[in-house]
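Support request from a user on the community tier.

User writes: "When I paste my structure tokens into the form, the page sometimes reloads and wipes my input. The last time it worked, I copied everything first. Here is what I submitted, just in case something in the input itself triggers the reload:"
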């Protein structure tokens, strides 16, 4: 059940990040047309996407003790809110964000500004 929940969360994250990256395409094309280097484009897209991922992970970590308490009340099980599964799930989440961000960032760094502006 937890694996299914993590899969649903990762799918939603991928969809949201793809939407975020598509909305940035216009601004990135303009920056590149004005002379931004491919390395700066790559770093900007990657760091922006990772900031979104961390911005989502921080509230999740803040609510983890409350969620663990609710789960313990429902299942009558001993639950540790910051046990190893929490950190493994967080690592998987941030790795997924990095992988989702890498490929569009690389594509944005190599894109021609004229083609990018023409697509939009």
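"...and here is what came back when it finally went through:"
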């Amino acid at each position: 059940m937890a694996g299914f929940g993590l899969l649903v969360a990762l799918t939603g994250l991928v969809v949201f990040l793809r939407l975020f990256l598509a909305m940035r395409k216009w601004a990135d094309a303009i920056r590149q047309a004005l002379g931004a280097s491919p390395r700066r484009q790559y770093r900007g897209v990657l760091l922006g996407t990772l900031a979104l991922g961390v911005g989502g992970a921080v509230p999740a970590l803040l609510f983890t003790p409350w969620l663990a308490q609710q789960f313990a009340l429902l299942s009558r099980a001993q639950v540790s809110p910051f046990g190893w599964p929490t950190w493994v799930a967080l690592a998987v989440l941030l790795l997924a964000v990095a992988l989702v961000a890498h490929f569009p960032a690389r594509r944005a760094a190599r894109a021609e500004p004229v083609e990018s502006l023409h697509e939009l």
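Agent notes: The reload is a front-end session timeout and is unrelated to the input. Residues 13-112 form one domain. The CA atoms of residues 6 and 12 lie 10 Å apart. Escalated to web team.
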